[in-house]
C-alpha cells in the first residue's frame, strides 16, 4: 500500500473517523474486509474503487446505518450514532429519498430545525444555489437540482465531518464547480470532508488524500501524486511513418498496453526508458515522442487491474 498520507496528525489527536479491522458481509459477499483507517481534522479525502468495491457500505458503517460484523468504527472517538446525535456529522447519500410533497424551502427549514447547531435556512439555500427554486415542490426537481437539495440537507448545520456519496452525479458543470468551491470553503474552515466518487478528475483536483478500495480492502492510501507514482507506469506516444508492425510493437518489453490509431501509437510501460530503447532496436524511428506520467484515472485502473490479476 502507498505510504501514509502527508497529513501529519499527532498521535494524541482523536481521529475524526477510526476504522479498526472492520468487516461487513452480506451472505457470502465480503463487502468490507478487515478495513483499518484513520481520518484527521481538515482532511479532504476521496474514496475511490470500482463498482462493488465497498465504498457505500463503508460510508453506511461510518454513519451507523449498517452495523459491522467485526472490528470497531468510531467517529470523534464515540459511536457513529452518538456523533450524529451530537450534530457532528452531515451526510449526503447516493439514493437518499426526499420527501415529495414539500417545497425545497420547507425541506431545508425542517433539516435546519432538526440540527443541533443549525445554520439559517436562507443561507443554506443560497449556498446550495437553491434560492431561485426554493418554492418548487421537491418532486418537480431535475436530477441535478435534487442533488443540490441533498447537499443543502448535508450542510444544514455546523457539522465537523461531511460525508458525501457520489455527490456530483447528475450535476452540470457549473453546479459541480459551485459545489466543490463550497466544499473547499468547508475544508478550509477545518472540517473533514470524505467523498466517494467515480469522477477521478474530481478526486485529483479536490482531495488531499485518496483511498483506493478494492473488494472491501484498502489498496492504496496517499496523495493523488503518491497513487500515480505507485502505479509506476508511464504513457509513451509517438508517430510512425509507413506500415506499422503492430505485432512487433506488442513484443516490446515492459508494455502494459498498446493502442494504434492511424499513424499514432500510444503505449503504457512500466519502464519507459527500456521500452523506447527497444523500439529503436526494432528499426523504427518514432517521431513526436512524448513520455508522461499516468493520470489518476489510469493509475487507478493500473492498480486495480494489477490486483485483479494477482487474485485470479
Ligand atoms: N444490502 C445488500 N445485500 C447484499 N449485498 C450487498 C448489499 N449491499 C451491497 N452489497 C454487495 O456488497 C458489495 C459492496 O457494495 P457497495 O455498494 O458497498 O459498493 P460500492 O463500492 O459503493 O459500489 P458502486 O460503485 O457500484 O456504488 C457489492 O458486491 C454489493 O453487491
TrEMBL record:
<dbReference type="InterPro" id="IPR003593">
    <property type="entry name" value="AAA+_ATPase"/>
</dbReference>
<dbReference type="GO" id="GO:0046677">
    <property type="term" value="P:response to antibiotic"/>
</dbReference>
<dbReference type="Pfam" id="PF00005">
    <property type="entry name" value="ABC_tran"/>
</dbReference>
<dbReference type="InterPro" id="IPR050763">
    <property type="entry name" value="ABC_transporter_ATP-binding"/>
</dbReference>
<dbReference type="InterPro" id="IPR017871">
    <property type="entry name" value="ABC_transporter-like_CS"/>
</dbReference>
<protein>
    <submittedName>
        <fullName>Sulfate ABC transporter ATP-binding protein</fullName>
    </submittedName>
</protein>
<dbReference type="GO" id="GO:0005886">
    <property type="term" value="C:plasma membrane"/>
</dbReference>
<dbReference type="GO" id="GO:0005524">
    <property type="term" value="F:ATP binding"/>
</dbReference>
<feature type="domain" description="ABC transporter">
    <location>
        <begin position="17"/>
        <end position="240"/>
    </location>
</feature>
<keyword id="KW-0547">Nucleotide-binding</keyword>
<dbReference type="InterPro" id="IPR027417">
    <property type="entry name" value="P-loop_NTPase"/>
</dbReference>
<keyword id="KW-0046">Antibiotic resistance</keyword>
<dbReference type="GO" id="GO:0016887">
    <property type="term" value="F:ATP hydrolysis activity"/>
</dbReference>
<dbReference type="InterPro" id="IPR003439">
    <property type="entry name" value="ABC_transporter-like_ATP-bd"/>
</dbReference>
<keyword id="KW-0813">Transport</keyword>
<keyword id="KW-0067">ATP-binding</keyword>
Amino acid at each position: 500500500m502507498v505510504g501514509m498520507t502527508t497529513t501529519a496528525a499527532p498521535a494524541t489527536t482523536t481521529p475524526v473517523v477510526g476504522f479498526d479491522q472492520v468487516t461487513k458481509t452480506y451472505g457470502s459477499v465480503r463487502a468490507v474486509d478487515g478495513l483499518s483507517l484513520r481520518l484527521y481534522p481538515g482532511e479532504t479525502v476521496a474514496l475511490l474503487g470500482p463498482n462493488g468495491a465497498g465504498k457505500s457500505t463503508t460510508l453506511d458503517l461510518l454513519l451507523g446505518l449498517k452495523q459491522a460484523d467485526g472490528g470497531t468504527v468510531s467517529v470523534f472517538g464515540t459511536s457513529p450514532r452518538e456523533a450524529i446525535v451530537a450534530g457532528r456529522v452531515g451526510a449526503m447519500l447516493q439514493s437518499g429519498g426526499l420527501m415529495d410533497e414539500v417545497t425545497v424551502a420547507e425541506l431545508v427549514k425542517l433539516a435546519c430545525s432538526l440540527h443541533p447547531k443549525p445554520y439559517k435556512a436562507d443561507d443554506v439555500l443560497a449556498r446550495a444555489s437553491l434560492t431561485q427554486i426554493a418554492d418548487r415542490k421537491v418532486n418537480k426537481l431535475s436530477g441535478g437540482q435534487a442533488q443540490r437539495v441533498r447537499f443543502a440537507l448535508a450542510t444544514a448545520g455546523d457539522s465537523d465531518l461531511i460525508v458525501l456519496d457520489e455527490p456530483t452525479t447528475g450535476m452540470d458543470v457549473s453546479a459541480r464547480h459551485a459545489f466543490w468551491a463550497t466544499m473547499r470553503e468547508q475544508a478550509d474552515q477545518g472540517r473533514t470532508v470524505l467523498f466517494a466518487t467515480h469522477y477521478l478528475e474530481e478526486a485529483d483536483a479536490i482531495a488531499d488524500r485518496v483511498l483506493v478500495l478494492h473488494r472491501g480492502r484498502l489498496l492504496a492510501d496517499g496523495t493523488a501524486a503518491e497513487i500515480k507514482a505507485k502505479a509506476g507506469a508511464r504513457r509513451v506516444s509517438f508517430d510512425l511513418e509507413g506500415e506499422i508492425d503492430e505485432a512487433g510493437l506488442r513484443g516490446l518489453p515492459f508494455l502494459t498496453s498498446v493502442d494504434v490509431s492511424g499513424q499514432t501509437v500510444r503505449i503504457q510501460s512500466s519502464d519507459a526508458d527500456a521500452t523506447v530503447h527497444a523500439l529503436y532496436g526494432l528499426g523504427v524511428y518514432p517521431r513526436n515522442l512524448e513520455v508522461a506520467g499516468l493520470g489518476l484515472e489510469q493509475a487507478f485502473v493500473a492498480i486495480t487491474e494489477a490486483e485483479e490479476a494477482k487474485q485470479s
